[in-house]
Structure formats: C-alpha cells, structure tokens
Amino acid sequence: MGILYIVPTPVGNMEDMTFRAIRILREADLVLAEDTRTSGILLKHYDIRNHLVSHHKFNEHGTSASVVSRLQAGQTVALISDAGTPGISDPGFFLVREAVRAGIEVQCLPGATAFVPALVASGLPCDRFCFEGFLPQKKGRQTRLEALSREPRTMIFYESPYRLVKTLRQLAEFFGPDRQASVCREISKVHEESVRGTLTEVADHFTETEPRGEIVIIVAGADPKNIAVEEPSAVRSSRKERKTNKTE
Fold this sequence. Notes:
Layout: E1 3-6, H1 19-27, E2 30-33, H2 36-45, E3 52-54, H3 60-72, E4 77-80, H4 93-101, E5 105-108, H5 115-121, E6 129-133, H6 141-148, E7 154-159, H7 164-175, E8 180-185, E9 193-198, H8 199-208, E10 215-219, H9 224-227, H10 233-247
Parallel strand pairs: 1-4, 1-5, 2-3, 2-4, 6-7
Antiparallel strand pairs: 7-10, 8-9, 8-10
C-alpha cells in the first residue's frame, strides 16, 4: 500500500516550511489541497510541480473513498490545508480515519500550527492545556462556556477578528473579568502581535483597536481553589433561570 502524508504548511512566513515537507510534496503521486488556488501559490513558491486535487470540508466525504483506493493501489498521497496542520480546525480527520480503517500507513509531519506559538508566547502555563478551537456559534455555546468556566487548564480558542470582542466579553462574563488572557494575531507574519492582560483589558484594547488577521485566544484556567467555592455570576444566573423555567 501507499502512504498518506499529512503535511503542515506555513501559517504566515513562507520560511516556516520544512525541507521534508517540500520533498514529500514533490515526490507524492497526488497532493490534496483545501483550496487549490491558495496551495498553488505555495507550490509555485517552492517550484513544486505536482498535481493538485481539491479536498475540503464540503467534498471530503465524497472524495475520501477514491483517495483510499489510490492509496491501496500503492500511490503516495500528501494532504495539505490552506495553512497550518490539516485536521486542526481544518479538513483532514475524516480522510485519516478512513485510511487508518483501511490499514493504510498515515504519517503526519511535524510543522506549523497556529496555537502552539500563541500558547508558548502567552506567558500562561503551557504544561497542561486544552484546545477548544472555534466555539459553537449559537446552539450549545452558553453550555460550553459554562462548562469551561471550571476548566483548570489553560484554554485555547480560535476566533474570527469580526467576532473577537464579542467572544472576549462573553469569556469575561462566564470566567470572570479578571481572568488572565492573551490574544495573538497574525502569527509568523510581519504584523504579529500578542496582547496580554485580563479578559476585560484585552477586550477593551480590541474595542479601541480594530483586530485584523488570524486570531488565537489563550485563557488561563480556573484556580482549583476557587472552582468549588464560587461560580461566575453568569453561571449562577443561568442556573437560576433554568430553575425558574422548570417551575413555570
């Protein structure tokens, strides 16, 4: 059988590409790309002349079977996303799962991903952390925030610049306004920036200064000593409202 390679690509600076990643993309029989236009720029930059096939969240269920067949026939396939490591808030999981189920070897190259540098540069504890990615937009959002308000590990979120301030305000509501946080944007790019402080301070900063680019939010975990002592006001209000609704 062939091998499925998961290949990280730069989240900003083109120099973050590894030598091994370039070699794999040159040697692969097929390169799967989230957006062939975006990936075409990357391949052209490194003079990689290989065939690109579209593989994204809207078609991965339909294309994965044919990719697995190619792998079973002995072809080498490389999967890339627009930026970072495929499978981390990007397409990739479904294909990897199907390949593993078929007994195909899957190798993920180490390389660029946005949340690791944001976490390490935040100044918050990074020996234990949980990656949450994008929060639910509507259904389940409040329930998720309520549960995370008692999470003792450092938390990592992805967010759009257009929703950043709203999300920071909600985090302050559920986690407490004085919870420490760091917002890192434009990682590995010319205008990379980390803004650190309490959730309220960081929200105020981006209220005054419009956020741009890719955003990673790092939030300190809850103090274990306080988890069972007192819940955030938003959590208590939520519980009280649910009890009232049940009574009515």
